[in-house]
Amino acid sequence: MIGGIDSGRRELTALGDALTSAERGQTGCASPTALAARLLRVARLYSGSVDAALMWQITDLVAGRDIGDAYKLTVIRMGWASILQAEFKAHGLRAVGADIARPQARAA
What we know:
Layout: H1 5-23, H2 32-45, H3 52-63, H4 69-91
Helix pairs in contact: 1-2, 1-4, 2-3, 2-4, 3-4
């Protein structure tokens, strides 16, 4: 990961919050294009966790006029989730600002 782990986690969390606001249609939320640009910035922080081809595909779909905004948000959410999943596999579940990994809950 490029940059600090906490700053990357904060960016990833903030992007998730912005996506949730956009998906709920809240006023003042960012456009799909702005969210895709933010996803690319986050992906640059986690360059080892995401493939460049995925980011190109997301950018191409969001920039095009073939799909509506709701589908564009879904594509961006999928990119966000792929970064989150890769980081979870690499580092486990940790709260922002926490130095120690928390044990994962086990299903009964």
